[in-house]
Amino acid sequence: MEETQTMIITGTNSTINSECFVMLMLAMHPDIQQKVYEEISKIMGKSDRDIDVKDLDQLTYLECVIKETLRLFPIGMVIGRSIDRNLALGSTVLIPIMYMQRNSKIWPDPLKFNPDRFLPEEINKQEQYAFMSFSVPPRNCI
C-alpha cells in the first residue's frame, strides 16, 4: 500500500511540476507560445471540442516544448545506479542529469530555451544519451 501511494504521489507531483515549468517557459517566451497556439489552432480549426488522444500525435511542436522544458528542469536532478561488478570506487554511481543536460559540450548555448533542439531533424544529431528526461530509456522511472 505504501509503495502504491508513493508511486501515485510521485507521479502526480512530477507531472504538476513539469506542467508548471512548461507554462512558465511559455509565459517567458511569447514567440514560442504563439507557435504552440498556432499548432493547436491548426488542429482544432473552428471547433470548440476538447483536444483528445487522437490529436496528441499532431502536437509535434508542443512535444518539443515539453522536452526542452524537461531538459532544463528535469524531474530528477540526479539518478543513482547500483554497480553489479566489484569496483574500487564503491557500489553506487550518481548520474547528474541536470548537469549533463546543461553541459555546453553537449548542448550549444545550454541555458537558452530552444524547443527547436527537439525537431525531428535535430534529434538525429544528438548524442544517444544527451537527453534523459526521467532516465534511460525515456520512460524508465522509479
UniProtKB/TrEMBL annotation:
Q: Which Gene Ontology molecular function entries are recorded, alphabetically?
A: heme binding; iron ion binding; monooxygenase activity; oxidoreductase activity, acting on paired donors, with incorporation or reduction of molecular oxygen
To which protein family does this belong? Belongs to the cytochrome P450 family.
Function (record text): May be involved in the metabolism of insect hormones and in the breakdown of synthetic insecticides.
Natural source organism: Asbolus verrucosus (Desert ironclad beetle)
Q: What is this protein called?
A: p450 domain containing protein
Cofactor(s) for this protein? Answer: heme
Superkingdom as given in the UniProt entry: Eukaryota
For this UniProt record, give its keywords in alphabetical order, as a comma-separated list.
Endoplasmic reticulum, Heme, Iron, Membrane, Metal-binding, Microsome, Monooxygenase, Oxidoreductase
Q: Which InterPro entries match?
A: Cyt_P450, Cyt_P450_E_grp-I, Cyt_P450_sf, Cytochrome_P450_Monoox
Q: Give the main location.
A: endoplasmic reticulum
| Residue stretches spanning the membrane | none
PANTHER family registered for this protein in UniProt? CYTOCHROME P450 4C3-RELATED, CYTOCHROME P450 FAMILY 4
Q: Name one GO cellular component term.
A: endoplasmic reticulum membrane
* Annotated residues for binding of heme: C141
The family database entries (Pfam families) matched by this protein are listed as: p450 (PF00067)
Q: How does it sit in the membrane?
A: Peripheral membrane protein
Q: Write out the annotated subcellular location.
A: Endoplasmic reticulum membrane; Microsome membrane
Q: Does the keyword Iron apply?
A: yes
